[in-house]
């Protein structure tokens, strides 16, 4: 899914583990799904503020799965599973508690975001007694509510102070990105144009994929050749036809390479990560080192097809273990899935090598975040990139001043950065931190390589 998130009117739930093809799917109204999950996860006797905080987390978790097309991009025909090992509990015949239904009807189109972002945050949670995690503790919310915490303060307690709650998001029909029939030579359409744009962006990181020039929306031999090469690189049957599996694979890889600097809005800096670990990391672990591990794997996976990228959750799950094994195989290590000191060292060096060799210029490949904020008085190539971004964006957003690309961060650049931040809903500090860098990269990339987004396209969300 691209663009601004909305609330789907319906959601499809797989009643089993992801790979259990015998398990059925159930499609139901989104509010009904939330009420069902909440009635299975929560006790109706809990304080209302605890229930509200938990329902916010449940709604946001589901929206994250829908918005990122977490399962559909992997070839599945559903949005979320019913198993708590992967997602949230759901039972078709569950009794729905009346007070939980009433709260759900009020809150189903409100969700949590990181400040400066629009995508639903990955609101991991667990009971906090039998299982622990890096997110919200359900039983812990009861204690906080009894101590007078508001729902928003409870969410801040677990997810950090830099969150907002989007209120009354619009409701739209949830239509999967891919709509049959398959795309092949001879078709001319907007969806062909979209695929051509994505393939051209992917080819910046996988140059064996030939460029499609010009991007016309007409599926000719040049596009067919690019599709075949993409399919060959990513283990698909090289037919040159964009079927459902190829569509979602292109979408998934495009997202990986286009949002390298963003990576789930974590904004992690290389300098923050430990160069060494005190103990081996393995499945079941959680915490900051796991977040770094997944960040490394996500970046490396976007550059090396043999390394499976992961979502950044802070939880060492099965997907993370599989990604670690793929990295170990790629780098000649024993594929144990356990991150020992040797694996960590190689991960760190591989990531550092990508950052070091990534171009620090506005060219075909967008540079990664430099690792520390840019501010007045600094002179370097990263400042020059910011200036070039701002000047390019100025053509579509005239209120954002163009800036000479001198490489010096002076007051003119600071003023332009502030205007950009104001335009895109960021705190107008005038400093380019990870979030501002990510947004600059995203807007520049959308304008240059993808859809041109003019001001006013985003609905007027109420953010508190």
Shape: globular
Which sheet architecture does the biggest sheet show?
A: 3 strands, mixed
Query: How big is the Rg?
Result: 22 Å
Determine the oligomeric state from the structure: single chain
* Structure class: mainly alpha
Distinct helical segment count: 14
Task: Report the order of strands and helices.
Answer: EEEHHEHEEEHHEEHHHHHHHHHE
Mean pLDDT over the full residue set:
82
Q: Extract low-pLDDT stretches.
A: 259-273, 451-464
State the helicity in percent bands: 40-55%
Give the strand line-up of the largest sheet.
Answer: 3-2-4
How far is the first residue's CA from the last residue's CA? 25 Å
What are the key terms here?
464 residues; mainly alpha; three-stranded mixed β-sheet; three-stranded antiparallel β-sheet; 14 helices; 10 strands; globular; disordered C terminus
Task: Write up what this structure looks like.
Helix content is 41%, strand content 7%. It is mainly alpha-helical. It has a 3-stranded mixed beta sheet with strand order 3-2-4. The protein has a 3-stranded antiparallel beta sheet with strand order 5-8-10. Strands 1-9 form a two-stranded parallel sheet. The longest helix has 20 residues, at 48-67. The two termini are 25 Å apart. 41% of the residues are buried. Residues 259-273 and 451-464 have low confidence and may be disordered.
